[in-house]
User: Which sequence fits this backbone?
């Protein structure tokens, strides 16, 4: 009987030691996984410390030019007008712009009773390295606001857009 009791005590001791050891390994594995996910998220947001550059705006011949200074964003949108329009290119200056992490928002000045507002995220495009076309994508909602000069009411057109960086000319 003493032999059975000793064996059981020995088995219980091994079992008692193995449960905390397994728990420690589970905690270590979960901690390592959470650190890896956190580092990946930080590197994605921090991958683009500066998004200054030119982007395609709705059509390849229109340009969204961005100048980032810390969290503040400046720039303009050049839109090529149709042949029936009096101006060949309308340039909408960005009057309010801000970047927080991978989130970007801006608004342009009103020209001919119309302005643009954008809210979206900064993402990796298909370009392989900085300076390649489509290295950075600005993905989000573009609002085109038309102000009726008679009724003074705004008509808002919303669309999901992807503005691709144009890259640098070599």
Assistant:
């Amino acid at each position: 009987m003493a032999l059975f009791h000793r064996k059981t005590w020995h088995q219980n001791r091994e079992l008692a030691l193995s449960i905390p050891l397994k728990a420690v390994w589970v905690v270590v594995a979960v901690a390592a996984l959470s650190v890896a996910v956190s580092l990946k998220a930080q590197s994605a947001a921090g991958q683009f410390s500066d998004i200054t550059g030119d982007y395609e705006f709705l059509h390849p011949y229109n340009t969204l030019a961005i100048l980032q200074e810390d969290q503040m964003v400046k720039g303009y949108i050049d839109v090529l007008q149709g042949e029936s329009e009096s101006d060949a290119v309308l340039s909408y200056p960005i009057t309010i712009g801000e970047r927080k992490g991978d989130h970007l928002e801006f608004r342009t000045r009103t020209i001919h009773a119309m302005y643009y507002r954008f809210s979206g995220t900064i993402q990796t495009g298909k370009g392989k390295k900085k300076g390649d076309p489509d290295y950075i994508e600005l993905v989000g909602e573009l609002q085109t606001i038309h102000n009726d000069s008679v009724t003074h009411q705004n008509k808002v057109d919303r669309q999901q857009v992807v503005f691709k960086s144009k890259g640098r000319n070599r």
